[in-house]
Specification:
The chain is α+β, with helices and mostly antiparallel strands and about 190 residues long. Helices cover about 25% and strands about 30% of the residues. The model has no long low-confidence stretch (mean pLDDT about 80).
């Protein structure tokens, strides 16, 4: 029968010490240079760690938002918005208003005049100087003409009105619109 020999065989060889396997580095790396450490596999723990860090930030953000909403609904909006509205009401830009404007065309001695009547009222809480009034007349299919009505910076007490009336030459092509404003920069 052929198969396994009865006698052990001797094989010639040499015993060598085992070396730790080396990692492959860049081709230009020399054996004396340190090899950078390999990245470790973080597995699923990295995502859980980032969520664990975000937890307190999310919690305190929610607490602060809820506190603000309770304050706002419970009347905090009145503490914030009422003083702001009062400041806006008392500002010169909002306190002075033009009201009761009426315009009409009148004919006298063969000429047409545009008559503009109205009043400027101080709706604020303190006396204010009245700036010049600008009357803008848009001509039908033409330019817009601007007229300045001097007020001599009359001082209006709270609630007081200053009535004005102006007679202007009517545009030849007719009047498209009349706009009354205060002169900018003089308030």
């Amino acid at each position: 029968m052929q198969g396994v020999p009865d006698q052990p065989r001797l094989v010639a060889g040499e015993v060598m010490p085992a070396e730790a396997p080396r990692r492959a580095g860049p081709p230009h790396a020399s054996p004396n240079e340190p090899v950078p450490p390999a990245r470790r596999f973080s597995g699923f723990g990295a995502h859980e760690q980032s969520r664990a860090k975000a937890g307190p930030v999310l919690f305190w953000s929610t607490v602060l938002l809820a506190t603000f909403l309770v304050f706002w609904v419970a009347g905090g909006h009145r503490m914030v918005l009422d003083p702001l509205a009062e400041t806006i009401r008392n500002s010169p830009a909002q306190a002075l208003q033009i009201e009761g404007v009426a315009s009409r065309i009148e004919r006298r001695e063969g000429r047409a005049f545009l008559v503009v009547d109205g009043a400027a009222r101080n709706n604020g809480g303190e006396a204010l100087a009245l700036p010049s009034i600008v009357i803008s007349v848009a001509e039908t299919d033409g330019p817009t003409l601007r007229y300045h009505l001097a007020t001599n910076q009359a001082v209006l007490a709270p609630g007081q009105a200053h009535e004005f009336s102006s007679r202007l030459d009517a545009p030849r092509n007719g009047v498209a619109s009349v706009t009354i404003t205060f002169q900018e920069g003089s308030r």
